[in-house]
Amino acid sequence: MVALEGPGGTGSAFRVALPGILVTSAQLVANAREVTVVLPDGSRLTARVLGRERGVDIATLRVADDSGLPPLHSGSGLSEARTGDRALAIGASGAVTVGSIRTLGNPVAVDGGGELEAIRIDAEVPTASAGGPLVNEDGDVLGVLTTATGASDGVGVARNAALGIVRGN
Question: 39: helix, coil or strand?
């Protein structure tokens, strides 16, 4: 987990299994080509924005040195997730919000119109956790925390499809 400072605000990002690749919320990177990543030890790196998709609130970043960042994996977490399962929303500040999955595939509004299917949990997630992972009790990534419009009712919302994290049929 790392903190992210971008033109869209501050939030979180996490490393995936690909070397140097981080995932975060597209709202945090806005139109930037580069953003600042703050490592747990306080050191700062410049991350290049590889791509963003505002319609699903996902962005990918590349850092030159990810040696201190263990990757998170999706495993089969989302395909096995059920309503009522415990979920943890993790932010770069060390904030961990524990809740239970309220709904899977819940539509929420996103920037630019349209909707995306989201996982909703029954706990309020701090805004600074946006871009961080929602994980199950085994540490498998279920989704990327977002600040999409549908999150305004005090419950956490996580994007349920990012870099191969897809719900099985």
Answer: coil
Read off φ and ψ for residue 14, nearest 5 degrees: -145, 155
Q: Are 157 and 120 in contact (CB under 8 A)?
A: yes
**Range list of H helices, 16-148:** 26-29, 77-80
Report which of 122, 134, 141 is spatially closest to residue 79, judged by C-alpha positions.
141
Annotation: CATH topology of 77-159: Thrombin, subunit H (2.40.10)
pLDDT tens digit sequence for 2-11? 999 999 888 8
Q: What is the pLDDT of residues 28-70, one digit of tens each?
A: 898 999 999 998 888 999 999 999 987 777 899 999 987 778 8
The single residue listed with the structure tokens 């050191």 is: 43
User: What's the predicted TM-score (pTM) here?
Assistant: 0.81
Query: How many whole angstroms from its chain centre is CA 16?
Result: 11
Which amino acid is located at 82 in the chain? Answer: R
Domain 2-62, what fold?
Thrombin, subunit H (2.40.10)
* Cα distance between residue 75 and residue 73, in whole Å: 6
Is residue 47 within 8 Å of 39, Cβ to Cβ?
Answer: no
